Amino acid sequence: MTTSLPHAVDPRALTEVLDGRWGHVRRVARADLHDPDLLPAYGESVQEARERVTRMARKIAESGRVVLGFPKEYGGEGDAGGSVTAIEMLAFTDLSLMVKAGVQWGLFGGAVQALGTERHHDAYLRDIMSFDLPGCFAMTETGHGSDVQQLRTTCTYDPETQTFDLHTPHEAARKDYIGNAAQDGRMAVVFAQLVTQGRRHGVHAWLVPIRDEQGDPMPGVTIGDDGPKAGLLGVDNGRLTFDHVTVPRDMLLDRYGSVAPDGTYTSSIENETRRFFTMLGTLVRGRVSVGGSAAAATKLSLDIAVRYGETRRQFSAPGADREVLLNDYLVHQRKLLPALAATYAYSFAQEELVGTMHDVQGAEDLDEGAQRELESRAAGLKAAQTWHATRTIQMAREACGGAGYLQENRLPHLKADTDVFTTFEGDNTVLLQLVAKGLLTGYRDAFGSLDGWGKVGFIADMVRETVLERTAARGLIARLVDAVPGRDDEVPLLDRGWQLKMLEDREKHVLEGAIRRLRRGAETPGVQPFDVFNDVQDHVLRTAQTHVDRIVLEAFVAGIERTTDAGARALLERVCDLYALTTIEADRAWFLEHGRLTATRSKALTATVNVLLKDLRPHLVTLVDAFAIPEDWKGAAILREEAGRQEAMYTDDMATHDTGLRRGTATSLEVPPGQ
Amino acid sequence: MTTSLPHAVDPRALTEVLDGRWGHVRRVARADLHDPDLLPAYGESVQEARERVTRMARKIAESGRVVLGFPKEYGGEGDAGGSVTAIEMLAFTDLSLMVKAGVQWGLFGGAVQALGTERHHDAYLRDIMSFDLPGCFAMTETGHGSDVQQLRTTCTYDPETQTFDLHTPHEAARKDYIGNAAQDGRMAVVFAQLVTQGRRHGVHAWLVPIRDEQGDPMPGVTIGDDGPKAGLLGVDNGRLTFDHVTVPRDMLLDRYGSVAPDGTYTSSIENETRRFFTMLGTLVRGRVSVGGSAAAATKLSLDIAVRYGETRRQFSAPGADREVLLNDYLVHQRKLLPALAATYAYSFAQEELVGTMHDVQGAEDLDEGAQRELESRAAGLKAAQTWHATRTIQMAREACGGAGYLQENRLPHLKADTDVFTTFEGDNTVLLQLVAKGLLTGYRDAFGSLDGWGKVGFIADMVRETVLERTAARGLIARLVDAVPGRDDEVPLLDRGWQLKMLEDREKHVLEGAIRRLRRGAETPGVQPFDVFNDVQDHVLRTAQTHVDRIVLEAFVAGIERTTDAGARALLERVCDLYALTTIEADRAWFLEHGRLTATRSKALTATVNVLLKDLRPHLVTLVDAFAIPEDWKGAAILREEAGRQEAMYTDDMATHDTGLRRGTATSLEVPPGQ
Lengths: 675, 675
Known about the structure:
The structure is a homodimer. The first copy, chain A, is α+β, with helices and mostly antiparallel strands. Helices cover 53% and strands 9% of the residues of chain A. Chain A contains 24 helices and 13 strands. In chain A, β2 (154-158) and β3 form a beta hairpin. At the A-B interface, α5, β4, α7, α8 and β12 of A face α5, β4, α7, α8 and β12 of B.
């Protein structure tokens, strides 16, 4: 059914493609990041983990690798893509360190850079970069995580004293989950409702000292500790409460809005909502980092599970003198390989996202449309990659059996540390809704409509061209799709154009259906606007999911197009087939319901996936070799020990063969009780 | 589309049905288990957790609640169902304690009871029951978890000294993951290959002292610690290695096989494999306990997520003066309610399983067929319930946002502690294969065929009547199914008979297909037996999954039949609809592929599920109230604090209303970066 693959593919050729545009940053990280403090540590107490990670943050600052994104005039390199890539590489070593770095240089430093002006940069950027000024990004409140516009902390200007009064009115307004707050932070970028001359102007940010030189809380600042968490032991998440704290006027980060000494508010962006989203938009980098770091953890978990499955044996096949390798079982392949294929697909999509972010943020003039699309893409890929991480690491843990439950095999940390990735930097469900909204309204009028999307009249009037914008390798993809003949069900399942067309058709159909249902709801007399929206919420989220699936497949196709090594290219084509077909297979009910697949073809799809698994089985280890993860970053005892055990057992079995030892067969399965 | 539900249902009426036959054990546990050592503790070190759990195990032993299953003559009550229920109730308070109790009284004590004879009972049972003799169940080895018949530890009889020589030949034969080993265990039931007179007789068990009175390892015994794990901090899992340890002859647990002083081996069960499975079969109780305990953790997680969603608000609806409750969002309902419905379904299936176990094990004569069916049922429900727990607790964690990541809200512990449940007491994938094998070969000839199932000839000859044996409420279910008219697609989706028939048809069809494919493979010349099996492994596992889905639905129907309270019954009917339809919906691709659903009807199914969500929304809290979980068992700060925060915020908002605070709408979603 498929053309044959080369016998062996050089993983280095795959690594080169996966590494992409910031390959130099990755290579330097692989060569340099081997400090013992960086490598996986198990059984630490919270305090030990915090101390180690803080120590490591200082060392990393000295290395200069995490400040690539800062302006050249302050010692950075103005390299946004490089900064995100550097943070992602830290995720391979220690996820607490990655988060700590993300807080310090991505969120805190990034906010000062993006929302502040020259006086803030001159005063603080160098100390932030060197970690001499550890800081917090104090946005989320106990009562508001997803709906940031509704933060309850207030910051009220008093022209008499020319200062702001920063205040937490009640516990729901307490800043919560704030990294660097419980132990290290000396300052915080605090988000609050700006009030001046008796009027509110929406959420703004201030630079506020929270600890003095001795590390004690500043007057009026109460600092709490979020206490033990599921994971990320090395990150000191805490809570900040402000009791009428005085903040000097010039500590307002005033790039997008400022207050004159007399209290007059001015902004270059008239519309409050638009101003808010412009401010948030500058901070997209954090979301991109989380997606990339989730992918790093996913790769580690697959590396461990695949190598273990290539060594570990259980149950004998009739007539064989050794037991069967886990990786030789179809059901084990069904677990590992589709997850691996999706990981490759997301890698290409993430690489493209980082490049887009770098270019959009580095452009002379802000292209609002491009910025909106970037935010949508970042949101969708963050959600997809973090959910993929949660699922895949769980699967890898189970695929390693009881060994996967021991910290010495790394998987428990990967699981616990990444678990919150589906929540922070935006709850995934809310992020998908954001993506959906972009699709439903189109990017071009997003600013005007974000505010009123719930209003019935707007939905009824809404017009969206559902001609999908292709993302990457536009020409190639158009050619592939256009070459698919009309009668879909005669096209081979491995035809790339057909696969692309299936995902494209689905996105378009789901989107049009959602628009139709929203409009119908809006036109029904007596229905509350909330109910119009809520009755189709599942359908709306589906538009985002189908959109992400398509852009990811397109990115994969574009990635293959860039691959020059013939063997690597052939293997990637097969992996891409597996990603495309398992994506379609997972949702084949929809394709059946909508006449895109016949029953016969749907069954053939499943059979074809199984053929692909057989084809790819010999390349399983090559596919994880390509991640090029240094041995000491893995920290999994089973990778060091299992092969020796299997050898010892085999040797002993051969020696005692005469004693009449008999084996069961791979098909005579029984399992023990016992823990 | 549906008949209306009563306005309010008394949760106590639901509790009574859910509590079932061992309701008295549950009620006593709810009344009595409030020792501070039992309640959730956060931020403990491994040593603190171990000490607390050991302390608690002693207290629990004194209470007598965990020894219900032991014989009356030793102070127990011979109540197998009660013992499993008592362990399940411990799972609500502390999962480490539940596992520790399961090891001590279920596995270790259970093995002495079931595999030993009177002299072992007289010598040890009382001390085991009182925890004066903490012990281990040393079956699993580092090299063999799933394939117990292939354990590599040997125990060789020497007639000269009339002792056994217990030996670990290499590291793969080391006993691993053994609860009670690292700290508390004084003896262990050790499973090893019995060798006497130069012949092997398969796996047997010995009672072996591993520590002396001072707690030091016995000569020749090396004890290791499995070190930090993902969870279950209070369980001291360890490793045991035996270097030619001398074991007296009478320490062989010899109920099913004994060695005379001269080394002659005798057994009441001739066939070695049959003997092995008979020995393992007596230990089914552990697997039943794990399923029940997974369900307890699932209920706790749903209780927390549902109550939080009933208090927590985020985003405003147009025109409303408060933000929208999480539980009012369709997508939130789509997460919580199907999980809740499945939890109800499994509760009924588990209740039935415990009853069957109690009756089968308590019968005068062993009914081998009933015992086999019990083991299959226990395996299938263990797999289904533990995977459901992993998924549901993860979902609940995400549904609580960042709060779900803090230990103070309990969910991290529930997640980490139950994670290994999908592995221990049998890897779930292997367990499903065991279930499938039972279905494929039929129970009646299982003993004869277990050994040779991989052999080609056998498969080719295999005949199985695919008339499914109904499990519960046979008459009622037969009537419901028979009443479904021939043209399925005109029957209402809420017709219970149609739902039952769909799951029954699917099981039968999948099973027949698997048999056909196996036979075809076996008849193909040149195909290796392993490949015959492996090529259809995914299909084989599907038979088990479809089987479990059916018996669970049947148990739900039987449970409703026992419900006398009209309101509770009406509500359960609706919950059962949701379980049945979401189960069918999840696999609707299969039903479409096989002509059991038209495209139109498949779409209607999804719409009907959404209608059921609306119907059940007002009863969400009632459905978790029915779990009757005492407040102090929950240990979730958000359940104590969030309502007050929401009130304070609302009060403050109303007071500051004049200042022009404006809110976004539930449909204008944006989310913050920030961690």
